[in-house]
Design a protein that fits this description.
By secondary structure, the chain is of the alpha+beta class. The chain is about 30% helix and about 35% strand. Strands 1, 2, 3, 4, 5, 6 and 7 form a 7-stranded antiparallel β-sheet that branches.
């Protein structure tokens, strides 16, 4: 990655996971559980953390959105998709209006990793980006 791209990436005000993300830590994660189990866990995790304020829940679309009031206000959307029986994918997208002279993107990335760590404790993690090459 070029120096310029690395430097400007630090100041991006959004971050998210995807199936084929170049950063392995930001690849879609898969859990051995059905859709309802993972969706309910995501909702419980958000309700249990006082820094989260759920703004939208759409079980039909598999999305939960919340405002986060920690280290600058940010907005998180969690998407839950069942890919196979007892294999559920979770993608996270976060954005903020905050600014930092040293760059805000690492703070956002850390928030995503923290949320994934909580999910890893609740459900059996089976891999990241595992359907990217199909």
């Amino acid at each position: 990655m070029s120096f310029f791209k690395t430097l400007t990436g630090r100041y991006q005000k959004y971050s998210g996971t995807s199936e084929n993300h170049r950063d392995e830590q930001l690849r879609t994660r898969y859990y051995k559980a059905n859709f309802n189990q993972v969706f309910e866990t995501v909702e419980k995790l958000m309700k249990a953390d006082p820094s989260y304020k759920i703004t939208s829940v759409s079980k039909d679309h598999g999305e939960i959105s919340a405002e986060i009031n920690r280290k600058g206000a940010s907005f998180l959307t969690v998407t839950v998709v069942m890919t196979k029986p007892f294999q559920t994918a979770v993608d996270l997208h976060i954005s903020t209006e905050s600014f930092s002279l040293t760059g805000i993107n690492q703070v956002l990335k850390n928030e995503l990793q923290l949320f994934y760590a909580k999910l890893d404790q609740a459900h059996q993690y089976i891999g990241s980006g595992i359907n990217g090459n199909e």
